[in-house]
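Figure 6 in text form: structure in, sequence out.
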Protein backbone atom coordinates (compact mmCIF):
# COMPACT_ATOMS: atom_id res chain seq x y z
CA UNK A 1 0.00 0.00 0.00
CA UNK A 2 1.40 3.32 -1.00
CA UNK A 3 1.80 6.00 1.62
CA UNK A 4 0.67 9.60 1.25
CA UNK A 5 2.35 11.52 -1.56
CA UNK A 6 5.44 13.37 -0.55
CA UNK A 7 5.03 17.10 -0.28
CA UNK A 8 7.01 19.12 -2.73
CA UNK A 9 8.96 21.79 -0.88
CA UNK A 10 7.90 25.27 -1.86
CA UNK A 11 10.58 27.89 -2.10
CA UNK A 12 9.43 31.47 -1.77
CA UNK A 13 10.77 33.47 -4.65
CA UNK A 14 11.16 37.09 -3.72
CA UNK A 15 10.55 39.57 -6.49
CA UNK A 16 13.48 41.93 -6.51
CA UNK A 17 13.24 45.59 -7.42
CA UNK A 18 15.65 46.51 -10.22
CA UNK A 19 17.83 49.48 -9.35
CA UNK A 20 19.58 50.87 -12.41
CA UNK A 21 22.85 52.51 -11.39
CA UNK A 22 24.88 54.76 -13.72
CA UNK A 23 28.51 55.18 -12.69
CA UNK A 24 31.82 56.60 -13.82
CA UNK A 25 34.65 54.58 -12.21
CA UNK A 26 36.66 57.80 -11.89
CA UNK A 27 34.33 59.34 -9.28
CA UNK A 28 35.11 58.54 -5.61
CA UNK A 29 31.64 59.61 -4.47
CA UNK A 30 29.91 57.33 -6.96
CA UNK A 31 32.19 54.58 -5.68
CA UNK A 32 30.97 55.17 -2.12
CA UNK A 33 27.35 55.03 -3.26
CA UNK A 34 27.96 51.85 -5.23
CA UNK A 35 29.39 50.10 -2.17
CA UNK A 36 26.30 51.16 -0.23
CA UNK A 37 24.11 49.68 -2.98
CA UNK A 38 25.87 46.33 -2.61
CA UNK A 39 24.90 46.47 1.07
CA UNK A 40 21.31 47.35 0.12
CA UNK A 41 21.16 44.19 -2.00
CA UNK A 42 21.82 42.17 1.17
CA UNK A 43 19.08 43.74 3.28
CA UNK A 44 16.35 44.67 0.81
CA UNK A 45 14.84 42.82 -2.20
CA UNK A 46 16.86 44.91 -4.66
CA UNK A 47 18.98 43.93 -7.65
CA UNK A 48 21.46 46.48 -8.98
CA UNK A 49 21.85 46.75 -12.75
CA UNK A 50 25.03 48.58 -13.70
CA UNK A 51 25.38 51.14 -16.50
CA UNK A 52 28.10 53.55 -17.57
CA UNK A 53 27.89 57.33 -17.60
CA UNK A 54 30.80 59.66 -18.29
CA UNK A 55 32.14 62.70 -16.48
CA UNK A 56 34.19 63.41 -19.60
CA UNK A 57 31.03 63.59 -21.71
CA UNK A 58 29.13 65.54 -19.04
CA UNK A 59 31.87 68.16 -18.78
CA UNK A 60 33.20 68.36 -22.32
CA UNK A 61 31.59 71.76 -22.89
CA UNK A 62 32.59 73.05 -19.44
CA UNK A 63 36.36 72.62 -19.58
CA UNK A 64 37.01 76.36 -19.81
CA UNK A 65 35.32 76.87 -16.43
CA UNK A 66 37.47 74.29 -14.61
CA UNK A 67 40.77 74.73 -12.84
CA UNK A 68 43.82 73.31 -14.58
CA UNK A 69 43.94 70.14 -12.47
CA UNK A 70 40.34 69.14 -13.22
CA UNK A 71 40.71 70.10 -16.88
CA UNK A 72 43.73 67.80 -17.17
CA UNK A 73 41.88 64.93 -15.49
CA UNK A 74 38.91 65.30 -17.83
CA UNK A 75 41.17 65.32 -20.87
CA UNK A 76 43.73 62.65 -19.95
CA UNK A 77 42.18 60.28 -17.40
CA UNK A 78 38.40 60.41 -17.60
CA UNK A 79 37.85 58.87 -21.04
CA UNK A 80 39.85 55.66 -20.69
CA UNK A 81 38.09 53.74 -17.90
CA UNK A 82 34.55 54.40 -19.16
CA UNK A 83 35.52 53.45 -22.69
CA UNK A 84 36.94 50.16 -21.43
CA UNK A 85 33.80 49.45 -19.40
CA UNK A 86 31.52 50.08 -22.36
CA UNK A 87 33.66 47.94 -24.66
CA UNK A 88 33.71 45.12 -22.11
CA UNK A 89 29.91 45.18 -21.86
CA UNK A 90 29.51 45.30 -25.65
CA UNK A 91 31.84 42.37 -26.21
CA UNK A 92 31.15 40.22 -23.16
CA UNK A 93 27.70 41.19 -21.90
CA UNK A 94 26.27 43.66 -19.40
CA UNK A 95 26.87 41.26 -16.50
CA UNK A 96 30.60 42.03 -16.56
CA UNK A 97 30.05 45.67 -15.58
CA UNK A 98 29.51 45.08 -11.86
CA UNK A 99 32.62 42.94 -11.31
CA UNK A 100 34.74 45.16 -13.56
CA UNK A 101 33.59 48.31 -11.76
CA UNK A 102 34.54 46.71 -8.44
CA UNK A 103 37.96 45.70 -9.75
CA UNK A 104 38.64 49.16 -11.18
CA UNK A 105 37.20 51.10 -8.25
CA UNK A 106 39.11 49.12 -5.65
CA UNK A 107 42.35 49.94 -7.45
CA UNK A 108 41.55 53.59 -8.19
CA UNK A 109 40.05 54.52 -4.82
CA UNK A 110 40.91 52.07 -2.04
CA UNK A 111 44.43 51.37 -3.29
CA UNK A 112 45.10 54.76 -4.86
CA UNK A 113 46.69 53.27 -7.98
CA UNK A 114 47.18 55.38 -11.12
CA UNK A 115 44.41 55.34 -13.71
CA UNK A 116 46.73 53.98 -16.35
CA UNK A 117 46.92 50.98 -18.65
CA UNK A 118 48.69 48.77 -16.12
CA UNK A 119 45.97 49.29 -13.52
CA UNK A 120 43.19 48.76 -16.06
CA UNK A 121 44.80 45.57 -17.36
CA UNK A 122 45.09 44.20 -13.81
CA UNK A 123 41.39 44.89 -13.23
CA UNK A 124 40.41 43.22 -16.50
CA UNK A 125 42.48 40.15 -15.74
CA UNK A 126 41.03 39.87 -12.23
CA UNK A 127 37.53 39.42 -13.64
CA UNK A 128 38.61 37.15 -16.50
CA UNK A 129 38.45 39.68 -19.33
CA UNK A 130 41.11 39.98 -22.04
CA UNK A 131 43.86 42.51 -21.41
CA UNK A 132 43.58 43.89 -24.95
CA UNK A 133 40.32 45.62 -23.94
CA UNK A 134 42.59 48.21 -22.33
CA UNK A 135 43.52 49.37 -25.85
CA UNK A 136 40.04 50.88 -26.16
CA UNK A 137 40.98 53.51 -23.56
CA UNK A 138 42.59 55.61 -26.30
CA UNK A 139 40.10 54.80 -29.07
CA UNK A 140 36.74 56.31 -29.95
CA UNK A 141 35.50 52.97 -31.34
CA UNK A 142 32.82 52.61 -28.65
CA UNK A 143 32.11 56.29 -28.01
CA UNK A 144 28.70 55.98 -29.66
CA UNK A 145 27.65 53.34 -27.14
CA UNK A 146 29.25 55.35 -24.33
CA UNK A 147 27.35 58.50 -25.22
CA UNK A 148 24.09 56.58 -25.56
CA UNK A 149 24.48 54.99 -22.13
CA UNK A 150 25.40 58.34 -20.60
CA UNK A 151 22.43 60.06 -22.25
CA UNK A 152 20.02 57.42 -20.96
CA UNK A 153 21.13 57.98 -17.38
CA UNK A 154 21.53 61.76 -17.34
CA UNK A 155 18.22 62.31 -19.14
CA UNK A 156 16.43 60.92 -16.09
CA UNK A 157 17.77 63.60 -13.73
CA UNK A 158 18.94 66.58 -15.81
CA UNK A 159 22.29 68.05 -16.78
CA UNK A 160 23.12 69.85 -13.52
CA UNK A 161 24.12 66.73 -11.56
CA UNK A 162 26.84 64.12 -11.93
CA UNK A 163 27.41 60.48 -11.08
CA UNK A 164 25.88 58.31 -9.74
CA UNK A 165 22.34 58.25 -11.08
CA UNK A 166 19.92 55.66 -9.70
CA UNK A 167 16.52 54.78 -11.16
CA UNK A 168 13.91 52.43 -9.72
CA UNK A 169 10.29 51.68 -10.68
CA UNK A 170 7.75 53.67 -8.72
CA UNK A 171 4.43 52.49 -7.32
CA UNK A 172 2.55 54.07 -10.22
CA UNK A 173 4.76 52.44 -12.85
CA UNK A 174 6.78 55.59 -13.50
CA UNK A 175 10.51 55.53 -12.78
CA UNK A 176 11.88 57.34 -9.77
CA UNK A 177 15.35 58.65 -10.61
CA UNK A 178 17.81 60.69 -8.59
CA UNK A 179 21.44 61.70 -8.25
CA UNK A 180 23.30 60.31 -5.23
CA UNK A 181 22.97 59.87 -2.36
CA UNK A 182 26.41 61.28 -1.52
CA UNK A 183 27.52 59.59 1.70
CA UNK A 184 30.67 58.53 3.51
CA UNK A 185 31.50 55.99 4.74
CA UNK A 186 29.17 53.61 2.93
CA UNK A 187 26.46 52.53 5.42
CA UNK A 188 26.21 48.83 6.17
CA UNK A 189 23.55 46.48 7.43
CA UNK A 190 20.41 48.09 8.81
CA UNK A 191 21.91 51.56 8.35
CA UNK A 192 22.14 50.85 4.62
CA UNK A 193 18.51 49.69 4.63
CA UNK A 194 17.29 52.83 6.43
CA UNK A 195 19.09 55.10 3.98
CA UNK A 196 17.58 53.20 1.05
CA UNK A 197 14.06 53.40 2.49
CA UNK A 198 14.44 57.10 3.25
CA UNK A 199 15.93 57.92 -0.13
CA UNK A 200 13.03 56.24 -1.92
CA UNK A 201 10.55 58.02 0.33
CA UNK A 202 11.80 61.51 -0.47
CA UNK A 203 12.60 60.77 -4.12
CA UNK A 204 9.07 59.49 -4.75
CA UNK A 205 7.44 62.59 -3.26
CA UNK A 206 5.88 64.64 -6.09
CA UNK A 207 7.64 67.94 -6.55
CA UNK A 208 10.62 66.99 -4.37
CA UNK A 209 13.96 68.04 -5.85
CA UNK A 210 16.80 68.48 -3.41
CA UNK A 211 18.30 68.02 0.04
CA UNK A 212 21.88 69.16 0.44
CA UNK A 213 24.51 70.29 2.92
CA UNK A 214 28.19 71.17 2.67
CA UNK A 215 30.55 68.18 2.70
CA UNK A 216 32.82 68.31 5.74
CA UNK A 217 35.01 65.31 4.90
CA UNK A 218 36.15 63.30 1.94
CA UNK A 219 35.32 59.71 1.01
CA UNK A 220 36.24 57.08 3.59
CA UNK A 221 37.24 53.88 1.80
CA UNK A 222 36.93 50.80 3.96
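Output sequence:
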Amino acid sequence: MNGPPEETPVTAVENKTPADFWFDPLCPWAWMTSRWMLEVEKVRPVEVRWHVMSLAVLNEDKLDTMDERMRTIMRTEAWGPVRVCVAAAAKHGEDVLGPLYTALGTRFHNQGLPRDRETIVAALEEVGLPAELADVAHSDAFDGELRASHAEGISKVGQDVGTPVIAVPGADGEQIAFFGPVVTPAPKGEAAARLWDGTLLVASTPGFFEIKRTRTRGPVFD
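Caption detail: The helical segments are 28-43, 55-58, 68-76, 79-92, 97-110, 117-126, 143-154, 189-203.
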